[in-house]
């Protein structure tokens, strides 16, 4: 019987950027596990040895040198199956940048081939042309009688009949198939956003449908700063059937026999809410742990945003590592305090109350000589938020806990947040989650039993910074606001386009002005975890001082 493929292990790891020792240990352990499972080839993700994205660490010669030494040590130590893994390569000849985004194939102490990435993305969160030189052609290599077509992440994202981008001049997959590739391999670090794992899978099926070749994609998993990587590595048979599927949002190793078109298939998320929750849990855990923190503190207002953030923190770190603090002001309803206390009890976290009334009065007294004859306004509202921010940061300093800020995307978009107040913190957990999706997450968290008190979910949202205040005093209803923000921020629709879509013209103009005028706030916010197509993070680079605004 003629051989048509290999037994391949898809090694989905969570590397820490620049941790060559730790990443090497993970790679070796995965190779040992794959060898025991009978794999002939172990495939890792893009830049797995360095961690993705290393960004401007690539300008540090020591990083490149240490990465090369770590690669050489792995090649010498790892025995058993062949290994295909991503690393930072160095160009030896030619003009251009000196580094390449590469994948190296090695076996029994010998590097067999190095493949360099051809299509270098420079949109949204990507900036690879800043660091790397693109290769001219893809690499084909015959291993154990099977011709492997090697691609790196973006190299497969150039099918204009599938994907709406046409920004590259070449199609590496087509070149590999024309050269005789029998299997297409893709080492990837494809960042998460809602539904992205399904799009990846659909693209793989599109490629298989066009070329009738088995397809294997290994994706990075884990959180690195604002970027989340969901894993969901997979293998497809030549008929387009899913024959291997790794878990989402955790490390995994699955083995597939391409001869028999059979492998390990893990379950996938059943809804967007499960997906987002698991992504945010992973992001919180990795951000804190990779930055050297193990405890978190959350200001519990009795509102839905802080409740959802606290639930995420508990899932990520454990209840014993999370502290909730209620900081009532003169305008805080007793229900808010009791709801926060009940939430803390349901989650099993420690809970403290620090009233801010006296501090607030002292602030006003100290500032009164500067504001003669001035009535109280938003200044005093913001003072309350800033007192709370100071208290949380004091706890962070004293107890070594990271403050998790709780503002959602809807508020961040229109500036309904206070600099150095409720924006204070080390990580902004739900800053890319619109308000209506926060409610959906709360319902999902409560799917089996009440964790977030129902009163918190049902109560109208309020900042409680003045008497009888609600969010809708200043903002359109969130069910109106969120679709406008999705169009304006994520889809880059114009005001005119939004009005044509049926939104009220005056509301659209007011929202657009608020979004544009509050760029300065977002630039000073804590890093936020990206879960939508366009977050207020590394993929959005609007200037602050500019005149292209609505007035």
Topology:
Blueprint: E1 7-12, H1 20-36, E2 41-43, H2 61-77, E3 82-90, E4 99-107, E5 110-116, E6 139-143, E7 146-152, H3 172-178, E8 183-188, H4 196-211, E9 215-219, E10 221-224, E11 227-230, E12 234-236, E13 242-245, E14 252-257, E15 262-263, H5 272-290, E16 296-299, H6 304-317, E17 322-326, H7 334-347, E18 350-353, H8 357-367, H9 378-399, E19 402-405, H10 409-414, E20 427-428, H11 435-445, H12 454-458, H13 478-490, H14 495-500, H15 505-517, H16 519-523
What can you tell me about this protein's structure?
With 551 residues, this protein is an alpha/beta fold. The protein has 2 domains: 262 residues, Carbon-nitrogen hydrolase (Nitrilase/N-carbamoyl-D-aminoacid amidohydrolase, 4-Layer Sandwich); 197 residues, Rossmann fold (3-Layer(aba) Sandwich), CATH 3.40.50.620. It is built from 16 helices and 20 strands. Strands 5-4-3-2-1-14-15 form a 7-stranded mixed sheet, covered by helices on one side. Strands 6-7-8-9-12-13 form a 6-stranded mixed sheet, with helices on one face. A 5-stranded parallel sheet has the order 18-17-16-19-20, with helices on both faces. Helix 1 links the parallel strand 1 and strand 2. Helix 5 crosses helix 6, helix 6 crosses helix 11 and helix 13 packs across helix 15.
CATH 4th-level superfamily of the largest domain: Carbon-nitrogen hydrolase
Radius of gyration: 26 Å
The percent of residues in helical segments reads 25-40%
Strand order of the largest sheet: 5-4-3-2-1-14-15
* Portion in beta strands: 15-25%
What's the N-to-C terminus distance? Answer: 73 Å
- Spans of at least 5 consecutive residues whose pLDDT stays below 50 are none
Give the rounded overall mean pLDDT: 94
What characteristic shape results from the CA principal axes? elongated
Largest sheet: 7 strands, mixed
Summing up helix and strand content along with how strands pair, one would put the structural category as alpha/beta
Work out the count of structural domains.
2
Number of helices: 16
Remind me, CATH topology of the largest domain? Answer: Nitrilase/N-carbamoyl-D-aminoacid amidohydrolase
The CATH architecture classification of the largest domain is 4-Layer Sandwich
Could you name the CATH class of the largest domain? Alpha Beta
């Amino acid at each position: 019987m003629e051989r048509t493929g290999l037994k391949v292990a898809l090694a989905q790891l969570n590397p820490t950027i620049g941790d060559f020792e730790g990443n090497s240990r993970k790679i070796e352990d995965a190779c040992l596990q794959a060898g025991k499972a009978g794999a002939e080839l172990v495939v890792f993700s893009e830049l797995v040895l360095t961690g993705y994205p290393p960004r401007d660490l690539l300008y540090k010669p020591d990083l490149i040198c240490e990465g090369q030494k770590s690669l050489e040590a792995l090649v010498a130590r790892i025995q058993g199956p062949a290994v295909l893994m991503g690393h930072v390569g160095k160009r030896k000849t030619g003009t251009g940048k000196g580094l390449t985004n590469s994948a190296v194939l090695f076996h029994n102490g010998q590097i067999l081939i190095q493949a360099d990435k051809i299509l270098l993305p420079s949109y949204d969160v990507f900036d690879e042309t800043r660091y790397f030189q693109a290769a001219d052609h893809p690499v084909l290599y015959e291993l154990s009688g099977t011709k492997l077509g090697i691609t790196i992440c973006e190299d497969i994202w150039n099918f204009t009949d599938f994907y709406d981008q046409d920004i590259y001049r070449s199609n590496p997959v087509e070149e590999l198939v024309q050269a005789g590739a029998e299997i297409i391999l893709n080492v990837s670090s494809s960042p998460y956003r809602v539904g992205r794992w399904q799009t990846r899978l659909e693209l793989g099926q599109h490629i298989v449908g066009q070329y009738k070749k088995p397809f294997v994609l290994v994706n990075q998993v884990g959180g690195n700063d604002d970027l989340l990587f969901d894993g969901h590595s997979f293998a497809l048979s030549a008929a387009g059937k899913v024959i291997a599927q790794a878990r989402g949002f955790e490390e995994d190793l699955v083995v597939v026999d391409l001869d028999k078109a059979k492998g390990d298939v893990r379950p996938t998320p059943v809804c967007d809410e499960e997906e987002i929750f698991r992504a945010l849990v992973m992001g919180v855990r990795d951000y804190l742990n990779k930055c050297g923190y193990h405890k978190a503190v959350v200001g519990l207002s009795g509102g839905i945003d802080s409740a959802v953030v606290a639930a995420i923190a508990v899932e990520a770190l454990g209840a014993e590592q999370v502290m909730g603090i209620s900081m009532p002001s003169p305008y805080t309803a007793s229900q808010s305090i009791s709801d926060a206390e009940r939430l803390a009890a349901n989650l099993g976290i420690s809970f403290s109350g620090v009233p801010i009334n006296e501090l607030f009065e002292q602030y006003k007294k100290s500032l009164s000589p500067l504001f003669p004859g001035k009535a109280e306004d938003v200044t005093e509202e913001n003072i309350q938020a800033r007192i709370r921010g100071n208290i949380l940061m004091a706890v962070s300093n004293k107890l070594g806990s990271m403050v998790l800020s709780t503002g959602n995307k809807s508020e961040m978009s229109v500036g309904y947040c206070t600099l150095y107040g409720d924006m204070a913190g080390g990580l902004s957990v739900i800053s890319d989650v619109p308000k209506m999706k926060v409610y959906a997450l709360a319902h999902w968290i409560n799917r089996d039993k009440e964790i977030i008190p129902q009163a918190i979910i049902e109560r109208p949202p309020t900042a409680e910074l003045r008497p009888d205040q609600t969010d809708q005093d200043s903002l359109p209803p969130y069910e109106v606001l969120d679709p406008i923000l999705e169009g304006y921020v994520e889809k880059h629709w114009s005001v005119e386009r939004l009005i044509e879509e049926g939104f009220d013209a005056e509301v659209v103009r007011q929202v657009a002005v608020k979004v544009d005028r509050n760029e300065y706030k977002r630039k000073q916010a804590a890093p936020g975890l990206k879960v939508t197509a366009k977050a207020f993070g590394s993929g959005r680079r609007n200037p602050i001082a500019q005149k292209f605004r609505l007035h």
